Amino acid sequence: MMGWYGGNGFGTSWMLMGGFIVLLAIAVGWLVVWLLARGRAEQVDPTVATRSALELLDRRFALGEIDADAYRAQRAALLTGTQVTR
User: Fold this and answer.
1) Which of 35, 38, 65, 83 could hold 60 in an S-S bridge, CB 3.0 to 4.6 Å?
2) For the chain, what are the domain ranges?
3) Sorting pLDDT into bands at 50, 70 and 90, what band is 9?
4) Is residue 84 within 8 Å of 77, Cβ to Cβ?
5) What letters, b where the CB count within 10 A reaches 16 and e where it falls short, cover 34-46?
6) Are the C-beta atoms of residues 72 and 84 closer than 8 Å to each other?
7) Where are the alpha helices (DSSP H) in 1-86?
8) Contact indicator for 57, 75 with CB cutoff of 8 Å
9) What is the SS3 assignment for 51?
10) Among 71, 39, 76, which residue's Cα sits nearest to residue 58?
11) Is the pLDDT of residue 29 over 90?
């Protein structure tokens, strides 16, 4: 009964299982590296945040939502990193 398949099935199944485990380990390793790289790429660049804030401030001033004094004070605060008091 043990020799029905000519003895080839047992050796092949071990090779397939070993190949599957190797592929699984590679996939898990790739996933870890990808997640770590993605986390680093999503860090906020302070120059981009400042530029976006300046663009928003310019737009508010152009639309007349704030006056010239408030615009100058807030722009200076954004560029120096200080906080505007009202």
Assistant:
1) 65
2) 1-43, 46-80
3) low
4) yes
5) eeeeeeeeeeeee
6) no
7) 8-41, 46-62, 68-80
8) yes
9) helix
10) 71
11) yes
The chain-wide mean pLDDT, for the chain, equals: 79
The b/e string for 57-75 (b: 16+ C-beta within 10 A; e otherwise) is beeebeeeeeeeeebeebb
CB 71 within 8 A of CB 57: yes
* Secondary structure tally for the chain: helices H, strands E: 3, 0
pLDDT per residue over 41-82, tens digit each?
A: 556 555 555 568 888 899 899 989 999 999 999 998 888 877
Tell me the residue length of the chain. 86
Rounded to whole angstroms, how far apart are CA atoms 58 and 63?
9
Place of tokens 């120059």: 47
Q: Is the pLDDT of residue 83 over 80?
A: no
Q: Can you give the pLDDT at residue 12?
A: 74
- Token duo for residue 26: 């590679």
